[in-house]
Design brief:
The chain is an alpha/beta fold and 275 residues long. It is 53% helix and 13% strand. It contains 12 helices and 8 strands. It has an 8-stranded mixed beta sheet with strand order 1-8-7-3-4-5-6-2. It is globular. The model has no long low-confidence stretch (mean pLDDT 82).
C-alpha cells in the first residue's frame, strides 16, 4: 500500500505549494505565517527546561581577496580585530572559570579547546603572512580558517575535530570585528545552530540565554560538556530543525525529554511557568 499512499501525499504537497504560490502576490503574509505548536524530537543533550525566542545562526559570507588599502593598514586592522576577539574570549573564559558549582580543575579541562585557540600564536602569524602577501585582513582570516579546519578535520581524531570547530568559531569572531560588529545576544534567546562550541556555550550562559537547539547529533558538539557544567538546557539531533524554526519564533526547550515545542500554546507556556 505504500506507493499509492506516498503518491497521494506528494500530490497533496504539490497542490499546497501551488496554492501558496498563487496567494503570494495578493497576500504574502499568508505564505510567511509562522507554524503553531509543532513538537520536534531530538536527543536530551543537557538537562533543564526553558522558554525563549529563536535566534538562528547565519552563515558568514566570504569576502573578496582584493586589497582594500596599504599592507600596513591591513595589518593594523587585523591586529586590532584579533586583539578584540581574544579579549572577548578571555573574558568569557574567565567568567566561566568563576562559575560556582564546578571546581577549577574540572572547568579548566572543559575549557581547554577554547584556551588552545587563544594561545595558538601560529594561527595569528599565518594570518599576518597572508596580509603581507597583499590580501585584505578579511581574506587572510578566511584563508587561515580554511587551512586549519581542513588539516585538523582530516585527521579523523575527535579531539582535533573539536579544535577545528573552535578555530572556526574564533575566526568568525575576528571577521565580525573586522566588519560591522553583530549585536549582542539578547537575553532569553534560544540559539538554533548545527553544533555548539565551547565559546558558544559560555556566551549563551553569560548573556542570560535560555538554551540551544541543534540539528546535529550531540556527539558533534564540543561545547556540550560546558553547557552541562553551566546548566544550559540543550536539545540536539533535531533533524528538521531549520525547516520549522525561524528568527523570532517562541520555543519551549525540554532538555530532559529531548524535545522542543515551536510557538507553544498559552496553555503550554502557563504549564511551563507553573513548573
Amino acid at each position: 500500500m505504500a506507493p499509492p499512499v506516498l503518491f497521494a501525499l506528494e500530490r497533496a504537497r504539490l497542490r499546497e505549494r501551488e496554492r501558496l504560490a498563487a496567494l503570494s502576490s495578493s497576500a504574502p503574509a499568508l505564505v510567511h505565517a509562522r507554524v503553531h505548536e509543532v513538537t520536534l524530537r531530538g536527543e536530551a543533550a543537557a538537562p533543564g527546561q526553558a522558554l525563549g525566542t529563536i535566534l538562528v545562526r547565519r552563515h558568514h559570507q566570504p569576502l573578496h581577496a582584493a586589497p582594500a588599502g596599504a599592507i600596513g593598514d591591513e595589518r593594523a586592522r587585523l591586529g586590532q580585530a584579533l586583539a578584540e576577539a581574544a579579549d572577548e574570549m578571555t573574558k568569557l573564559v574567565a567568567w566561566a572559570m568563576s562559575w560556582g558549582p564546578l571546581d577549577r580543575a574540572t572547568m579548566t579541562s572543559l575549557l581547554s579547546p577554547a584556551r588552545f585557540v587563544l594561545d595558538d600564536a601560529r594561527l595569528r602569524g599565518r594570518m599576518r603572512d597572508h596580509v603581507d602577501e597583499g590580501v585584505t585582513a578579511e581574506a587572510a582570516v578566511e584563508r587561515v580558517m580554511r587551512e586549519y579546519t581542513r588539516v585538523l578535520s582530516a585527521s579523523g581524531e575527535r579531539l582535533l575535530v573539536d579544535r577545528a570547530l573552535e578555530v572556526e568559531a574564533l575566526c568568525l569572531r575576528v571577521l565580525n570585528r573586522l566588519g560591522a560588529p553583530a549585536a549582542k545576544l539578547p537575553p532569553g534567546s534560544v540559539l538554533a545552530a548545527g553544533r555548539l562550541t565551547v565559546c558558544d556555550a559560555i556566551e549563551l550562559r553569560a548573556g542570560h540565554a535560555a538554551g540551544a537547539v541543534l540539528s546535529a547529533a550531540a556527539a558533534a558538539s564540543p561545547g556540550l560538556g560546558v553547557a552541562l557544567a553551566l546548566e544550559l538546557p540543550v536539545v540536539a539531533g533535531v533533524a528538521e530543525l531549520f525547516r520549522w524554526v525561524s528568527d523570532g519564533d517562541r520555543v519551549l526547550v525540554d532538555g530532559d525529554a529531548g524535545s522542543i515545542i515551536v510557538n507553544p500554546s498559552r496553555v503550554d507556556i502557563a504549564a511551563h511557568r507553573k513548573r
